[in-house]
Design a protein that fits this description.
Largest sheet: 7 strands, mixed
Distance between the termini: 37 Å
Structural class: mainly beta
Strand content: over 45%
Length: 123
Amino acid sequence: VQLQASGGGLVQAGGSLRLSCAASRLSFSSYAMGWFRQAPGKQRELVAAITKGGTTYYSDFVKGRFTISRDNAKNTVYLQMNSLQPEDTAVYYCAAKAPPITDWPPRSNYHYWGQGTQVTVSS
């Protein structure tokens, strides 16, 4: 199984980025997908998640700014990030979680992780 995250970069405050995470050798449509982030010196935190059925969850700090979506035909999950702020600077990771989903929000027990993509927001 491989999760390949991409789309990170350097952007000014107020700008936008779209992250992608392409899955291979995974029954993608059966998995819930999550985006996490980890800033230097901080713990990894859940940003957003989407179930196989399309139900979404957003952490409070991104509500109204970020949108998670998935394309099962392309085995890809996306994170559209708008109105980025310096505090959004982190390495962003995608992860896959096998059913059944027993926790909500789905913060733990992800089975597969991508390699991370750096997002840097300048002020």
